[in-house]
Design brief:
This protein is α/β, with parallel strands linked by helices. It has five helices and six strands; from the N terminus they run E-E-H-E-H-E-H-E-E-H-H. The protein has a six-stranded mixed beta sheet with strand order 5-4-3-2-1-6, covered by helices on one side.
Length: 168
């Protein structure tokens, strides 16, 4: 299977923020995702958030951590949890196993199709910034449920040890 490079698109209209992930979404996009989380947390008039995963071929755990961060950043501001649109059974199963249904409303198709989306420019991060974001993303995933806690604990412990002893 040919993997397409990951891309992010977004739109904000009438209080609804739409974030669409396309292709192979990996940690190289975590700085861009993190930037969107920060923007959402401070967006006036935000009423709903929809994340569209219908065009992804892969989403790695770091990107999933930042999607979880979106839910946590807007939780107190929205009447309803953010929505994730995912129609591929493998993606849906991954979201279920990771506990996303406790933080998002998971649907197979949106109530209305998103309007025209703008391509988000990729924000590059240096190695230290990338490592910090990987650690943050996996700490967020660990807080979601016991399964994630056990799954990502070894990685988080390794990353934390590397921060204290960068020679490792």
């Amino acid at each position: 299977m040919l993997m397409c490079e990951g891309r992010l698109k977004a739109a904000f209209d009438s209080g609804v923020f739409v974030l669409k992930l396309c292709g192979d979404v990996r940690l190289t996009l975590c700085a861009t995702l993190d930037n969107q989380v920060e923007r959402l947390a401070n967006t006036p008039g935000l009423r709903a958030v929809m994340i569209d995963l219908r065009d992804v071929s892969n989403v790695d755990s770091t990107a999933l951590g930042f999607l979880a961060k979106v839910a946590m950043a807007v939780r107190s501001r929205l009447e309803r949890p953010p929505t994730i649109v995912a129609d591929h059974p493998d993606v849906r199963r991954m979201l279920d196993v990771m506990g996303f249904s406790h933080y998002f409303t998971l649907v197979e198709s949106p109530v209305t199709e998103p309007q025209e989306l703008d391509e988000l420019p990729q924000i590059n991060a240096d190695e230290a910034g990338m490592q910090q974001r990987i650690l943050e993303a996996h700490r967020i995933l660990m807080r979601m449920n016991e399964h994630n806690h056990e799954e990502f604990r070894p990685l988080v412990e390794l990353l934390e040890a590397q921060q204290h002893d960068p020679v490792r």
